[in-house]
Model the fold of this input.
Amino acid sequence: MSFREDGAAALEWAAQYLERVGDLPVLAQVAPGDIRAQLPASPPESGEPFADVLRDLDEILLPGITHWQSPRFFAYFAVSAAEPGILAELLAATLNSVAFLWRTSPASTELEAVTLDWVAQLLGLPDGWHGHIEDTASTSTIAALAAAREATGRNVVVCSEHAHSSVDKAAKLLGLELRKAPADDDFRLRVDALELGDAAAVVATVGTTSIASVDPVPAIADACDAAGAWLHVDAAYAGSAWVCPELRWSQEGVARADSLVVNAHKWLFTPMDCSLLWTSRPDDLRRAFSLVPEYLRTSEEVDSLSEYGPALGRRFRSLKLWAVLRCYGREGLQARIREAVRLAKLFEGWVSAEPGWEVCARRHFSLVCFRHEGSDEHNEEIVERVNRSGELFLSHTRLDGRYVLRLAIGNERTTENDVCRAWEALRTAR
Ligand SMILES: Cc1ncc(COP(=O)(O)O)c(C=O)c1O
Done:
């Protein structure tokens, strides 16, 4: 078989998968070890046809896939790999650029700068910020906090009790002390509880993982200014919503940040992985990471993006983001985000109108937190039952000590009918 024929078969597989993903059980219905038991323990001695790989993908691996592309994937933060992004991934793998220096892939380096400028414009961010792509928000936050430590010479990071665990991990990795500030009744960091005398950085979150609450960034920026601390804003999920002017209220104060992370792989329809990190202080980031051994010295007087983060080798991630931005445009992005928010609002209305059910946190974007009356165990059982059914997949959190269900809308294929089916399944499972 030739590359062309195998490629056509793989593309056909992808097209058929996207057509039928809504019919597959959302959460993989397998037990630990089931998939591994079906796979040969040793590699083949001689090469096999690519068609065998596709066959095993269907027969062995597919039952072990939890379908993040399903329109009824409502767990964590639901995501979409849009078709232009999928195709661009194929092209990026074909080129296999390793852009650690400008000269090792000028187009990758320059397209990355351009796409980050484009997204900054789409989201209404300040002009002139330096942007680059990391794999995940976890790495982006490590990079930002390393720069904060470098810039301030201090070793303390402060965030709210609702900040993502990636902040804990970054602090641990960088040897920083982490201090958690309490949150108010709306799950927002309490600025009056901040003690920043020795703080290198504060991480403010716009769209927290549990409830998508929005920290008071303007007041946090004031406190950072007064204390000389770095302000890192984690808008990994909600930052994409700023493409819609009516959701930009949640951006207030972000222009004063020293760094900002938004995950294009969360709500900007770009295949995993693509985390966008901007900074207004690129020199500090560079001081934290630039290390140029002899073999990487070149005559060009240009920046290499590997000098702004931990990794040397860099994939051509901007290609998939560029493809999505070009094929969807501002209007296409806005329409999809607005639809997710509309559906979440609709679901929230059904929950609050139904006796015995309760919405547990103010909804700002496309995430609804809710529970059924009764014990935590009862609510946990509802989640287990619907997830096991394969009809939908949702996750949970704990708020004020209570077990709470989370329904996150973010897949571009999700329709009103899918949300309706989810609600019916939940009502039946109660
Ligand atoms: C607010 C927030 N920040 C950071 C992260 C970590 O993202 P990543 O998986 O890209 O490291 C998440 C993950 O859901 C998140 O919700």
